Each structure stands twice: as structure tokens, then as C-alpha cells.
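Severity: low
Component: inverse-folding endpoint
Summary: output formatting inconsistent between runs
Steps to reproduce: submit the following C-alpha cells with default settings.
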């Protein structure tokens, strides 16, 4: 996953262990993070901290997550991801109707939470997504340029979209079907081996002759490995 600089996240949960786990994980991803254990503290911190995203537990003593979400969405320009141990459809519908932008049921994968955070940033704050750093890659979506080790790569539009998708999902295995869907579109009717053709071209431009940067996982897909 890429590191996005300047993104502020407020975590709101009455369980200290969950708060600490998420706080450490998100700080390691490059986010600025503050935490709150109740609704009133959360409302106060939003005014002071001005977060871009609030990750909000539903079940809390006093003011619950639904009420906090309703209050924040009336006055603040931010994205809300709600967390709950409940799986009832009516709870999800209630949260979304109050303005929540996404909903996750505990327990959840940290990688999935990261993916949802990135989706919210792209949707709510596209200008902040304009430049993303992922290891040696610098992706400038406004210029449609990708630099590798500070050198701008000469890429076709499709090569750009493919490399951006892989770099942003650094460390994750991406199947050919997933790549075709995200880069070429769900209605693409060509052959899957088009992915192999473009991967080969990217490896040449990255001087990745030994496939150490773009790895092939037989039967699974491809993965970019960068720190």
C-alpha cells in the first residue's frame, strides 16, 4: 500500500486495545492519527484536529456512533467509516442513511481497512491523492507520471494505469482477472495474455530482468515488492 502524507485520521472506539492496534498500524502507514474513547471527546477533537477520515465504532456508552456520525456529517467535510460488531442489515442501512461513507463489521482485516481508507481518500480528497509515494515509486496522478528512483518513466496510458494499480497495491497478489477488471475495465473482451504483454514491457522499462520487482506467482498472479 502507498503512504499518503498529510492525511489525518481520528479513531473513535471505547475499546483501548482496538484503538492502540489501529493507531500503531495507521501511523506506520504514514497517517497522522488521534484517538477518542467517547462521543463528546470525538466531537471536540474533530474541531481541533480537522481529520479527513473518522473511523467510528457504533456501540459506545453515552452518545453512540450513529449520533456522532449524524452530528459530524451536518457540519464537517470528512469521510466516516463505521465499525460494528453487529451484522444486521438495518444497522448498516441506518449508518449509511445518516451519512456514513462505509461500514465494516468486526472482526476485520487491517489490509481491508487500509483499502477502504484509500477509497475514501480518492473519493473525498482527490487532490491529496494527486501524488503517492510507494517505495521507489512516485505517482503523480495529475500529470499522469510515474517516477522510479527519481527518474520519470516513459509509459503509455495503459502502462501508466497498470503500474499505478500495482504500486498502490504493493505487497498484494493481483490476479490477471483483477488486473483486467481494474485497468482494462469489466467489459474487456480480449485475451488475458494481454496482461503478460504489458507486464513484460514494464519490466523492460524498469530494468527488472530478474523479476525481483514485479514478481510472478504461478497460478495466482503478480505482486510488486517494494519497501
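Observed output (run 2 of 3):
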Amino acid at each position: 500500500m502507498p503512504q499518503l502524507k498529510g492525511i489525518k485520521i481520528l479513531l473513535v472506539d471505547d475499546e483501548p486495545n482496538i484503538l492502540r492496534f489501529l493507531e500503531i498500524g495507521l501511523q506506520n502507514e504514514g497517517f497522522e492519527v488521534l484517538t477518542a474513547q467517547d462521543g463528546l471527546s470525538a466531537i471536540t477533537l474533530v474541531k481541533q484536529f480537522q481529520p479527513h477520515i473518522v473511523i467510528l465504532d457504533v456501540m459506545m456508552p453515552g452518545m453512540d456512533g450513529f449520533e456522532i456520525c449524524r452530528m459530524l456529517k451536518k457540519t464537517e467535510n470528512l469521510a466516516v467509516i463505521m465499525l460494528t460488531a453487529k451484522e444486521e442489515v438495518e444497522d448498516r442501512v441506518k449508518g449509511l442513511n445518516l451519512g456514513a461513507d462505509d461500514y465494516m463489521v468486526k472482526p476485520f482485516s487491517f489490509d481491508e481497512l487500509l483499502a477502504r481508507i484509500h477509497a475514501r481518500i480518492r473519493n473525498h480528497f482527490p487532490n491529496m491523492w494527486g501524488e503517492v509515494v510507494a517505495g521507489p515509486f512516485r505517482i503523480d496522478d495529475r500529470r499522469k507520471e510515474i517516477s522510479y528512483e527519481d527518474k520519470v518513466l516513459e509509459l503509455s496510458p495503459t502502462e501508466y494505469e497498470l503500474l499505478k494499480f500495482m504500486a498502490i497495491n504493493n505487497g498484494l497478489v493481483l490476479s490477471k482477472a483483477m488486473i483486467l477488471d481494474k485497468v482494462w475495465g469489466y467489459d474487456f473482451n480480449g485475451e488475458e495474455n494481454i496482461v503478460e504483454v504489458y507486464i513484460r514491457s514494464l519490466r523492460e522499462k524498469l530494468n527488472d530482468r530478474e523479476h525481483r520487482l514485479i514478481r510472478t506467482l504461478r497460478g495466482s498472479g503478480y505482486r510488486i515488492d517494494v519497501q
